[in-house]
Amino acid sequence: MKSHSYLVKLIQCAVFAAILCICSPLTVPIGVIPFSMAIFAVMLCGVVLDWKSGLVSVLVYLALGLFLPIFSGGNTGLTAIPGPTGGFIWSFPLMIPVICLIKRQSGSVVWMMTTAFLGCVPAIALCYLCGSVHYALFAGVPISAAIRACVMFILPDLIKAAVASVVGVLVREALRKSRFSV
């Protein structure tokens, strides 16, 4: 039975790494920092998976992204990480434990969705902080200017957090009830 649960966790990690690879290049170029679905995919990972599996999924995505064009706008890690959006990328593994620390996996579905959302909000703030600091250093601008450039998507990211919370809890509950739970 232990090998079954290990295999299920590996499959879940692979599936969520693939979701990250599919969602992340989807961007709308607006200003220096594009609107991206990467943060949505990271939040979905954090809501559905436990922190270890979520972290493995994100790290696999980052490793693949070093050489494959799967980051925002179809960039690779060799160009994206040292570029203006690199701070957002390296914040992704930090977001997972924040979400997992706050979300709850028991109680009513509404409670689980609420706590998942409450976990996504500080994860977004952490992502913005890392992205803003990296951008300020990259562009040589004051942190206040970097924050203005990097935090312009707060409302869409809160909507993404709400959707990730609802969808993530429903997926997690469906997995829990299926033979694909661990």
Would you mind describing this structure in some detail?
The protein is built from eight helices and two strands, in the order αββααααααα. It has 182 residues and is mainly α. It has a two-stranded antiparallel ribbon with strand order 1-2. The model has no long low-confidence stretch (mean pLDDT 91). Helix 2 (38-48) packs parallel to helix 8. Helix content is 73%, strand content 2%.
What ranges have pLDDT less than 50 throughout 5 or more consecutive residues? none
The count of strands amounts to: 2
Number of helices: 8
From the alpha-carbon coordinates, what is the Rg to the nearest angstrom?
16 Å
Strand content: under 5%
Distance between the termini: 10 Å
Mean of pLDDT: 91
N-to-C SSE series?
Answer: HEEHHHHHHH
The residue fraction in helices comes out at over 70%
**Helix/strand class:** mainly alpha
Q: Which overall shape is indicated by the principal axes computed on the Cα atoms?
A: globular
Strand sequence of the main sheet, in spatial order? 1-2
Largest sheet: 2 strands, antiparallel
Task: For the structure shown, list the relevant keywords.
mainly alpha; 73% helix; 182 residues
List the helices and strands and how they pair.
Blueprint: H1 2-23, E1 27-28, E2 35-36, H2 38-48, H3 51-65, H4 77-80, H5 86-102, H6 109-139, H7 143-150, H8 154-177
Antiparallel strand pairs: 1-2
Helix pairs in contact: 1-2, 1-3, 2-3, 2-5, 2-6, 2-8, 3-5, 5-6, 6-7, 6-8
